[in-house]
Predict the 3D structure of the following.
Amino acid sequence: MANGGYHDKIEQLSSVAACFDCSAESAQLLVSAMTEKRFSSGANIALRGDPSTMLCLVLEGSIVAEIFGLEGQQAQLARHGPGEIFGAYPAPAQHRADIRATADTRLLSIPAQSLAALARAHGDIGSGIAGLLARQLDLMLDRMAARIGLSANGRFHKALLQMADDKGEIRPAPVISALALSVHTTRETGSRALATLLRRGIVERNDDHLRIVSRRMLEEMVV
Amino acid sequence: MTTLPLILSLARSGATSRAWDAFLLAGLDRAEEVGALTLKGRLLKDRAKQAAGLERAALFAESGAAYRQAARLRPDSYPLINAAAMALFAGDSAVAATIARDVLTLVDGDASQGETPYWREATRAEAFLLLGRAADAQASLAAAITRAPQAWEDHAATLRQFGAILSETGNDAEWLDAHRPAPSLHFSGILGIDSGDAVAAAAIHTAIAEIAPGFGYGALAAGADIIAAEALLAGGAELHVVLPSSRAEFCRSSVAPFGQDWTARFDTLCHAAHSLTICNDGSETTRAGIALADYQAMGTAVSKASLLQSRALALRIEPKDRPALGDPWLSAGRPMIHIAVRESRPSVAGSNVKDGSLSFFLALGDDAGLADPMGYATLGEALAAIPLGNTSVAIDCNITGQRETVAALLQNTPTGSIFASRSAAMAMLTEGRCRRIEPMGEMETTKGAVDVFAVWPSG
């Protein structure tokens, strides 16, 4: 990996496992082939026509894909935030738009062909990519329809409810940054949402797990 | 039962009649199920609040009956205490007392009742209040708060409910004030303070210590803003930073020109802040952007205070001879505290910021379909253009001039409701032009996600 110490590595593994919905072993294989890249807000990541050889996962921040007409008029094709992917898969291609960071942004990138090879060799990685692409398609369609869905907090609360067993326990306690990423929000939003639940006593933290104390109250917060 | 969340969402949006119609259409009024009965109690309560006289009392009674039936199916203090309160609002204090005694029996006999440690004791307190045992209610409420001292949203729900009960029974509600959370503070002030100006710093720290806010909202320009933010953290308040442009751009335009000292303090505060909101990522700092961020910070302070049943205050740090003319905070008549400081260095950078343009956009739906959105220079003009009658209305404000957001919002707005983007909802709260907002979720667009609120204009 290009950057990061032990904690960054743990975060990357958890994030990749959450986004690809794969085993720890498969996440390790993916992370070993990935490179972390950071871009300041406003920085150009790629230009239209550039070779696109990587699939990128947004860990933090956001990027936009923009095209410019002959008269210089700008059109934004897409915007991708935490937990979303962009770039090439399964084979290298060309960028069809300029890619620019709209916030301080952290990406994990993996060569498209390496990812395709991992998908062929490991069923859970292939299945994870299919799930990731399906979620991304849903998001794109939601954006085209401009539909009102759950807020970032609402998605985080719903994910906690879905992870809990019959006793309301989530074992082991989730890595919050990874859980946040899996519901397309930031680590800060996830941390604040959990902190609110803990201080209100709706969720309690134990040594190795979280417990939902009031399922009804948490369900009411899925907005 | 997937229709319950949809109906609850309609109820939250203020479309009370439509929510009730949808409930009936789904046949849920005949359902013998806890979730449906609890929602029925909620919907009837909403309808009761909009009714008057005998109809109001009858609807509260029906609401109470639904809650009580839910509690019969599965003994639960939440619907049962609601049943007791509804009986009181229906004018039947004897039934309210009977159910309140049942609540106490249930809570005392079952350690799992009450949902959370706070609500277990707060439910007991409400039962005491409904029984007229004021001293026991006060002691129980104090105990509840001790169990979850930072469950402010829950404390506020109790304070709101106790206020209604005490009003209904004609009793004094002043004792509730002792349990209100610390106020929310919006802060802003002049740039022209030297980083070593001990006199100004002492005045700002003293004022904030006296106010003792629990939550502070504002930007972090060099000078007064940064000193106020440091004072908030020193006093143990949550600091919520709202910037008009990206952190790097704001630092370039409004912090760094005043010296490296300020830049270091700015960075420290950004890291220590409880939250950091960027209103206009990717654009340069403009006066219009600053105005939009001010609306966001002020509106959030007002919203927080309303959510927590506490006070919202503004702190303005400026020379004595420079009154806060045109400050949107003044529109609502909320309290504003001034700290007079002397300008100890010239505000060089402020003059380099471009004007930009802040506009309010209104979209209306009617029988003929959706009209093209209209733009207005002020919020007041936009709200004045809302017609009387049962229509759908969407409001947005932005500094880019784009009308796509308001048009997309309107497509999601139920007839009879007003939906606003976060920026417009916060502007309405700031200017005191709405009495309530309710979060409705997030609207995904190709330009990013937009937080959506149902709003209820004042007057």
In short: Chain B has a mean pLDDT of 92.
